[in-house]
Amino acid sequence: MGRYIIKGGKRLKGEVMVNGSKNAVLPILSASLINGKESVLTNCPDITDVSFTCEILKALGCSVKREGKILTINSCGINNASVPKDMAEKMRSSILFLGVLLGKFGSVSINKPGGCAIGKRPVDIHLDALKALGANIVETDTTIECTAENLLGTDIYLPFASVGATENTMLAAVFAKGQTTIHNAAKEPEIWALQEYMKSIGVTVEGAGTPTIFISGCGKYKDAEVDIISDRIEAGTYLTAAAITKGEIFLKNVSWIYMCKTLEIMSECGCEIKVKKDSIYLKAPKKIKPLNLIRTGVYPNFATDMQPILMSLLTTSSGTSIIIEQMFENRFSHADELNKMGAKVSAQTRVAIIDGVKQLKGAEVNATDLRAGAALILAGLNAKGTTIVNNANFVKRGYDNIEKNLHGLGAEIKFCDGEN
Ligand code: UD1
Questions:
Q1: Does the Cβ of 236 fall within 6 Å of ligand 1?
Q2: Model pTM score
Q3: pLDDT at 116
């Protein structure tokens, strides 16, 4: 489990090199099964979601080697289509193996990833899209069995622009005969990153970043080498760490172009922001300004993954802010924990009202999911006294060495391993 111990109140200042994106690399790891050859992923973050996914790849017969930020997968030895039960249940994104294994083997059985702290997270849109390609699906409470003699390219209309369903459909469509057109596809940058990986191995695919993606496989693929795009949520977390400590930060190796909404919001909060080709500079104001109304939404709207992090910042603003969570039904679990630190947040199912306080105070709090954990660390950086954030394992799912980066900026933070 592990915990972070933070002595707050230090003004952060310095540089951080942003890592590769968790949500971009996970579907690319599933896609590395397509070519039956080598895929070299550079700028690959060293986070537990990636190491768990590598365990799945190994269980399927692939070889995986990490050297620093370079991950090399060879899928020539793939010999089975069953994702081990415990691995599937442990990680939601294991569902991204469904489409590609169905295409590769014509049959796949996988345990449902189940709900999680932020909501039920059903996979009906994924399954309907696979059915449209010709799959037969039998579901039990805990398993999904998918079979298809042949997948046939077709027009698929997603009822909601789900990120995971778009990725799963792309991964299956590679194996379909003819062209597949995905309508109302998700437009997130991570979809574009998957498209670029697919193109590099020889798949004909275009349209990522727009609501319509066209995709056709060719059956013969090449080795790949791709650089993983920067993590826009990790970048947003470090910007907020500087903002909540009245500090200043220079982020390197970051694609600010994917972060326009976050930067607009930070600027509304009073932060001074300058962007260059692959860097962002932020200087915090003396006091964070409140925000009238922020709604999470699909890209390019404000990312739901940034919501807990922004809430943490707004707890220290000079007035009242409102956040509406539109993406997930249960994504305010951090509010109660922030309140233990002296914040004034009143959260109902989808709406949170945040009254700013002068400074938070240290407390022992529990991370309930990945971004909630990050939000509590940021609150601890602001707080007077010592904060203990339990369940560090959630944070390690998506942040590569957050304690080291924050320490480099002047924070007093350490990670302690072991039970809470
Ligand atoms: C991905 C990201 C996650 C991010 C989310 C929204 C990864 C590994 N995870 O999750 O960090 O918070 O996008 O940007 O990339 N839904 C259904 N049925 C489905 C699929 C989704 O009802 O079949 C609902 C979900 O419950 C949720 C909403 O659609 O309320 C958005 O989900 P989706 O875009 O699919 O998110 P994920 O791909 O799970």
A1: no
A2: 0.97
A3: 65
